[in-house]
Amino acid sequence: MAKKQTAGRDALGDFAPKFAELNDDVLFGEVWSRESKLSARDRSMITCASLMSQGLFPQLEAHMKMAKANGVTKDEMVEIITHLAFYAGWPKAWSAFDIAKKIFD
């Protein structure tokens, strides 16, 4: 089961309360909790692939940590990054590997 998310409220609760609510309650509360449709592990792999492809590395780091907690292995993350290098770009893969090494080593 997906862990209750409070990152939105922690980071933006006072500044952008509606955005924080949507982040924590809708995205992570409703969407991520639909594990009968797609597991948290699979959602993590898809999310990491999307973030790497877009070059959104600060968010990728947070989601790689979540992916590890959701059961994605080092070997799987290495394979995801290697595969995406050919579709998203070699420099993005290098950046993603820097993050993965910190998290999975």
UniProtKB/TrEMBL annotation:
Gene Ontology MF terms in the entry: 4-carboxymuconolactone decarboxylase activity; peroxiredoxin activity
Keyword annotations for this protein, in alphabetical order, are: Lyase
Tell me the enzyme class. Answer: lyase
Query: Can you name the source organism?
Result: Lentilactobacillus buchneri subsp. silagei CD034
Indicate the segments forming the Carboxymuconolactone decarboxylase-like domain, all copies.
17-101
Q: What are the EC numbers? A: 4.1.1.44
State the protein's name: 4-carboxymuconolactone decarboxylase
What single Pfam family name could you report for this chain, choosing any that match?
A: CMD
InterPro entries hit by this protein: 4CMD/NDH-1_regulator, AhpD-like, CMD-like
